[in-house]
Amino acid sequence: MDDVLPPDVLGPSRSRAAIEEEHGKSSQKQPASFRRLRIAMISDFFFPNVGGVEGHIYMVSQQLLRRGHKVIVITHAYPPHRTGIRWLPNGLKVYYVPYEVLARQDTLPNFFSLLPLYRQILFRERIELVHGHQALSSMAHEGILHARSMGIRAVFTDHSLFGFADAASIMTNKLLKFVLSDVEHVVCVSHTGKENTVLRAAVDPKDVSVIPNAVVASDFTPDPSAPQPGRITIVVLSRLVYRKGVDLLIAAIPRICAQHSDIHFLIGGDGPKRIDLEQMREKYLLHDRVELVGAIRPSDARDHLVRGHLFLNTSLTEAFGTCIIEA
Fold first, then answer.
1. How far apart are the C-alpha atoms of 83 and 78, rounded to whole Å?
2. Residue 8 counted as domain residue
3. Which residues form the Glycosyl transferase family domain (predicted)?
4. Domain-embedded: residue 84
5. 182 and 230: one domain?
6. Structural domain span for residue 206
7. Are 132 and 156 in contact (CB under 8 A)?
8. Phi and psi, residue 56, nearest 5°
9. CA–CA dist 20, 147 (Å, integer)
């Protein structure tokens, strides 16, 4: 097991003392009654993968660290470069455990394969609260199950909306109902998401709270001079996957361009549907009117959005459309 969980990887330029000193300086002053918690965030979805869940986990962890709590993140490895233990700003410790990815960063549901690793990590870090994220994360479900078996409190945050009729939703809902039967609390990112989760998981609405996502408004100030005059630019910022409605976007772009010669599309994001977008652009000869920017860093989202006049969101389902708020 020592080979699987190596010593902390601090890097040549940072010592443990430096990290602890940095963490201490960033913590807020707490009252005498303050109790420091040891929290483990568990999910299949975390950096270096980019998305709403990943950003949510990171930002919540940073705020908890600033309040004086200890926070670690447990996720699957991204070989060959992101394995073992890594440190992020303010002393955020991340365990990249060796676990195979099934598809799109989802790991294969197996409720007992990670028990030895989870047990060692939770005891090593003396974790008091496990916080699982996202209904499609098998690591989160497994972490909550094993945490409860070890007497550790557990909380779950649901970030997305799911249906009730298709096979994938039926299986996910059954799994969610099984896992959430023994958690301290459930958090949803919108009231619509709460209604969806209560119906899918058969949990008591009193045990579900709504904490909406948010953005820092000062980071998304408009720039009227940025869009190029003489044409209308429709800007898109999304992961290029089926659930984000990229197929609708592919069908709509040729029709819109055929009817309006002054419209251009600026598409930011990456994913498996990018190939379909490139094929559409080549088929209809729209290279000069459809620009595929690729992956956008969260810090560059504002600079991408201000290049357009209109923001287009084609998502099939959204529990909370953060990009709409940013735009």
1. 6
2. no
3. 225-327
4. yes
5. no
6. 16-210
7. yes
8. -60, -50
9. 26
- Which H helix or E strand runs over 73? strand 70-76
Residue 263: both structure tokens together:
């419209």
What CATH number should be reported for the domain holding residue 77? 3.40.50.2000
204/229 same-domain check? no
The model carries a pTM of 0.80
Residue with tokens 């990112």: 189
Domain boundary among 210, 238, 262: 210
Query: 74-93: buried (b, 16+ CB within 10 Å) or exposed (e) per residue?
Result: bbbbeeeebbbbbbbebbbb
Q: Are the C-beta atoms of 78 and 40 separated by less than 8 Å?
A: no
Q: How far apart are CA 243 and CA 127, in angstroms?
A: 35
Helix (H) / strand (E) containing 42: strand 38-42
- Distances, alpha carbon 282 to alpha carbons 61, 173, 279, 289, in Å: 43, 40, 5, 11
Q: Show the DSSP H helices in 234-295 as ranges.
A: 246-259, 274-283
Q: Let me know whether 223 and 274 are in one domain.
A: yes
If the chain, 327 residues long, is cut into consecutive pieces of 10 residues, what is the mean pLDDT of each piece?
46 47 53 85 91 90 95 93 92 92 74 91 97 93 95 95 87 92 94 94 95 84 72 91 92 95 93 94 94 88 89 85 79
Total domains in the fold of the chain: 2
Angle at 301 between CA 19 and CA 60, to 5 degrees: 40
Asked if the structure places residue 193 within a domain, the reply is yes
Please check whether residues 226 and 201 belong to one and the same domain.
Answer: no
Give the strand order in the sheet containing 70-76.
84-88, 92-97, 70-76, 38-42, 129-133, 153-158, 185-188, 208-210
